[in-house]
Amino acid sequence: MARATIKDVAKLAGYSITTVSLVLNHREVSIPKETRARIWDAVKQLDYRPNQLAVGMITKRSRILGLLIPDNSNVFFGDMSRYIERAARHNGYNLIYGNTDNNPNRNLEYMRMFIDRQVDGIIFSKSTAPGDNSDEELNAYISKSSVPFVSIDRRLNNGSVKSVILNNRRGGYLATNHLLQMGHKRIGAYTGLINLADSEERLEGYRAALEEAGIAYDPAFVYQGDYQLGREREALAHFLDRRVTAIFCFNDLMAVGIYKAMRERGLMIPEDLSIVGFDNTPFGSLIIPELTTVAQPIKDMSECAVGLLLSAIEGKEMKDSRNTYIFEPQLVVRDSTQRISV
Ligand code: RIB
Fold first, then answer.
1. Cis peptide before 270, with omega less than 30 degrees from 0?
2. What is this structure's pTM?
3. CATH 1.10.260.40 spans which residues of the chain?
4. What is the pLDDT of residues 269-298, one digit of tens each?
5. In CATH, which of 3.40.50.2300, 3.30.70.20, 3.40.50.300, 2.70.70.10 is domain 168-296?
6. Phi, psi (5° rounding) for residue 190?
């Protein structure tokens, strides 16, 4: 059956297309209640849904946002997507998603696809990889784009895009200081992607905590990770060779990988090694022992990103002229760390 049109609704209800349009668009004009009721009845009977493309051509709005995330296998981004979708829906917008799968070449590919599909704006957390230097190209594309962008969690270097990020340095400090307070001095750092500001800043926080405790920073205690599963066995071997007593993993996913690698060696947490993660994803309280981690206020960050994007789309003057919105982390102490006396 062909899709019902506004003409069909007008015919069935017995009113002009103009009257039907006024009622469907909730215009504040004096139309009798009975008329409104008959028109909505006809809409229901015909299952009439306005052609969004046609509406978009008139209002120049699709009321659709594009959301780009780097790794949909990481629960952190699943959580973030959920909060962004809720905030968008609450404001009458839908989302189309793209997972760039940790491949920096897909950032621009998806941005172009979203704009071809008439999104009103884009929120993105970029994919990157060692050797990637595509930020300049992304900045150039975004600065010439017809729609607004907001980055969340990961930001473009030297960009003018409004960004919502965590105080990652503070997060790295909290994780490391917690271990120092428990008597650990030989603390491994299992980092995220080396060319990501958030990983660099977590490492700065790690170094600041060591320095404050009078412990010299030793790069031998750092193992380059990538925020994904897959390197945990090599990472653990690296740390065990250096006789660490604790490992700060720069995200929960890599901490879970270390759990598995330790289990394979018959090692116990926290008896043999204390482990701290980062992100406070839901599985941190499901694994045994429950994971001590650093929480990101991802709901607040997501709502902030949607608010910034909608203000830009709707042309609302921003009283707050900041370009970067920084949120504070929180240490969540559970059972994967223990005091030692060295
Ligand atoms: O877990 C994924 C990591 O990458 C998070 O810590 C988040 O900050 C993102 O950058």
1. yes
2. 0.84
3. 6-50
4. 999 999 999 999 998 999 999 999 999 999
5. 3.40.50.2300
6. -100, 100
